[in-house]
Amino acid sequence: MFKLFQKTPVISTKDLADKLEQSITLLDVRTPEEYRRGHIAKAVNYPLNKINRYQGKEKEVYVICQSGMRSKQAAKILKQKGYEATNVQGGMNRWQGPTRGGK
């Protein structure tokens, strides 16, 4: 079966908060400046313009940005590379949990 038009899986920020209790890979695809202003502690900054170079060992990744649009693009690119990428719906705009600034 051809999977070109497969929908990107999504997760709510509330469900993401529960997932963070486990060992997951969360990629923040915002710019380094946006990331420094405030990010989820477990998130690794991997800007959208570099996502095609991503080479993580884990197959399952969660992707977040500010609103959910860039992370959706990033998830599509990661899926083409063979990752099981899940987009965080609403991004940091909807995130209610703690954030940290800086790198």
Automatic annotation (TrEMBL):
- SMART domains assigned: RHOD
Gene3D superfamilies xrefs: Rhodanese-like domain
In this chain the Rhodanese domain maps to 20-102
Q: Which PROSITE patterns match?
A: RHODANESE_3
- PANTHER family for the chain: FAD-DEPENDENT OXIDOREDUCTASE, PYRIDINE NUCLEOTIDE-DISULPHIDE OXIDOREDUCTASE
What protein name applies here? Rhodanese-like domain-containing protein
